[in-house]
């Protein structure tokens, strides 16, 4: 989300993140819109909210699915026209701020179950961006791991480290249920535990306790190519079926591949189309 901000015309203006899951109802309006002096017992002085701190920039609402029903109403009211009333205030104010919201859950499914307001969902869904899980983004694991190592070297003032080829294979083979945060934790652990003078960092313990015997480097070009093709096919199919919600006929038309051939690939990789189908 920071990338969206830094690549936009608002890049030189504030980027303010807010974890919605860590914000109780009693503090929601004060945190977002601020309060006037004397608005409540502990309000000894006037305080501005995050919409002011993010003025002309971006306010990022993380884990928006964790908002309570009351919090959703407050957010919806603000999103309608970006006007708000500080707690204890009398004058309605306007905020020029871009709102970006992120969720680990399927908000459409939550709305179907009555756990998320439909009107808020429709109001937020002006532009949607689906970020596939790390296991479906071939090559991203190694790329991110090296970026984490570069940042850790600067932060801890240690010589630069690079991952060995075997370490990259271990990382790419893991399913990463915790996505990027899990990967970052693994790299931090290995970086801090590395006490060798060598600049090459070798991961000896597979993430998630996977068997190291299950991961091996290809010994020749033919096997290396077969592994790369298989990884691409599986990633492509999962992304395609996610887009079509498990509809193989539509997936066949979008991919311009014969339906029977596509079905064979799906079975070859053991993909269950039911997991992509919504309610």
What would you note in describing this structure?
The chain is mainly alpha-helical and 279 residues long. The protein has three domains: 2-124, Rossmann fold (3-Layer(aba) Sandwich), CATH 3.40.50.300; 134-214, Helicase, Ruva Protein, domain 3 (Orthogonal Bundle), CATH 1.10.8.60; 221-276. Helices cover 45% and strands 8% of the residues. The protein contains twelve helices and seven strands. It has a three-stranded parallel sheet. Strands 3-4 form a two-stranded antiparallel sheet. Helix 4 crosses helix 6 and helix 7 (140-156) crosses helix 9 (179-193). The longest helix is centred in the last third of the chain and has 23 residues, at 221-243. The model is unreliable at 210-216 (pLDDT under 50).
A few lines on this structure:
By secondary structure, the chain is mostly helical. The chain has twelve helices and seven strands.
Feature tags:
279 residues, mainly alpha, Rossmann fold, Helicase, Ruva Protein, domain 3, 3 domains, three-stranded parallel beta sheet, two-stranded antiparallel ribbon, 12 helices, 45% helix, flat
CATH top level class name of the largest domain:
Alpha Beta
Q: What's the CATH architecture of the largest domain?
A: 3-Layer(aba) Sandwich
* Strand adjacency order, main sheet: 1-2-5
Percent of residues in β-strands = 5-15%
Helix content: 40-55%
* Distance from first to last alpha carbon: 29 Å
> What's the overall geometry?
flat
Question: Radius of gyration over alpha carbons?
Answer: 24 Å
Tell me the CATH topology of the largest domain: Rossmann fold
CATH superfamily of the largest domain: P-loop containing nucleotide triphosphate hydrolases
**Which regions are unreliable across 5 or more consecutive residues at pLDDT < 50?**
210-216
